[in-house]
């Protein structure tokens, strides 16, 4: 305590404090000491994730970059953080991952939240104008599916930089348990979209009787073998998407949906109308979907048989909500290890 009583020691003490407060120390494990930027009060607070570094086998971060696009929404931000954490943790070359976040809000709250949680993350945020799609949305079977951000994936090619040729689009209610580079490297075979395809699903259920009874409309699938695919996990050749005018083609189906009730399921059916039967099918392990249950009750579901690279809580039930309610499904415990949510608001990391 004598140190504090000597006048000459005060500047030394202040100097030491300034080093700790304004120059965070990074250890080899990625734990940082110092102030974490205060996130927006209307967003959850998250623990800082450890730093993930490339191994010696990794190539150039620029030449071998993997681009991942996701949306940012206050209701799903906890899921987004878990998804990003899972991608980094299972990547052999995490520094090669580049994240592109689409948000309807241009305020810095999302930026500061991501930056404080992942200080080393390569990412950009892009403004998505909700008004661009708001008048085109038709009411679906679940209100959450009617949010404008659920349609942002349609406009990826318009929003992302023109020099970008390929991107992986991912929903926020999933975690990846494999190296995403394996999905990135899929041979697109001149297709616009690559995704797991499910040909055993009853494809007719995704459209109304009015659609199937209209001969002109039902001929849409003529010459194709249409199968269901989930738009929450897609590899998109955005260059071909731009050149083929696919955004406009999707919007044309949405406009027709406003006049005639062709489907009930939000942004998915326009993709099916345009691309089902004409995508590059990838292994089912890359979308173990439906873990959120159906769109009405969200009842628990078990895993499908087979290997798993990605777990997807599509459907009404979200793992963070079920865990918080203390009524989790068994599969929700597979999501929990990636949850960075900090229930108490501590801003000084130790």
TrEMBL record:
Q: What keywords sit in the KW lines?
A: Glycoprotein, Glycosyltransferase, Membrane, Signal, Signal-anchor, Transferase, Transmembrane, Transmembrane helix
Q: Which GO terms describe its molecular function?
A: glycosyltransferase activity
Q: Which GO terms describe its cellular component?
A: Golgi apparatus
Pathway per the UniProt entry = Glycan metabolism; pectin biosynthesis
- Is the keyword Glycosyltransferase in the record? yes
What is the membrane topology listed in the Swiss-Prot or TrEMBL record? Answer: Single-pass type II membrane protein
What Pfam families does the entry give? Glyco_transf_8
Q: Which range is the signal sequence, renumbered to this chain?
A: 1-30
Q: What is its EC number?
A: 2.4.1.-
On the tree of life, the source organism's domain of life is Eukaryota
What family classification does the UniProt entry report for this protein?
Belongs to the glycosyltransferase 8 family.
UniProt name for this protein:
Hexosyltransferase
